[in-house]
Structures are given as structure tokens and as C-alpha cells.
Amino acid sequence: MKIEKSERFKKQIKNLKCKYQKIHEDIKDLKSELPKLAFRELGKTNYKLCSIKVNKAETKEIWKIRISCSDNNRGKSAGYRIFYCKLTSDKEVFLLGIFIKKDIEGENVEKIAKQLVEASRDAILASN
Length: 128
Prior knowledge:
CATH architecture: 2-Layer Sandwich
Number of helices: 4
Strand content: 25-35%
Structural class: alpha+beta
Largest sheet: 5 strands, mixed
Number of strands: 5
CATH superfamily: RelE-like
Distance between the termini: 17 Å
Radius of gyration: 14 Å
Strand order of the largest sheet: 1-5-4-3-2
Order of helices and strands: EHHEEEEHH
CATH class: Alpha Beta
CATH topology: YaeB-like fold
Helix content: 25-40%
């Protein structure tokens, strides 16, 4: 499975690295887990969040997956939330953004997803 990262995702990783030193190890775990879990409804662990229009003819389904944060030792429930979508096939995943749960708790996650798609619109359209 091909996994691509948006520019925003890369910046978020860089910012989170200051506080969560093991984030790169956690992301490596995601890369091994995602091919098995991508685009499958698995309760709170992995689910389709919403569908967002990218342009007049195309809609993208935005998914959210939970992965644990090794730095806080509290498991997936207090770990990272990663937003992703499909590019052209089930074999291509585009990572839109990553957040630590406490940073987005109480926020409208669909609104966050829309902002992430808007920020990555050009890269998403270029993949088609």
C-alpha cells in the first residue's frame, strides 16, 4: 500500500515532535497497521468520518484512525487521531492531518476534516 503525507501532516509531525519524542516510532507502527485497517469500519478505532466535495465531480470520504502515543502510555484512547482519505484506489492512502486527542477534544471533527481537505486540495486533485 502506498501512503502519502500532505504538507500539513508533515508540519504537524514536526510540531508534535517537540512534545512527543517517540512520534516517529508511532507513525512507523501506523504504516504497518494501516494496510490492514484502511477503509474498514472498526468501531472507535477506525471509522468513516464524513464525505467532502473536493470539486464539482468528486467527493472524498474522510476517515479517522486512532493510534497510541508511546510518550503518554495511555493507549489509543488518549493517543493520536489521524485523518486520511483514499487517493485513486484502495491501495493509496493520503494522510491529511494528525492531532493528539486532548488538542481536538470537544472540537467539531468534521470541520477539522474540511479544513484539512481544503489545505490539501491541490495534492488530492493532482493524484487523479
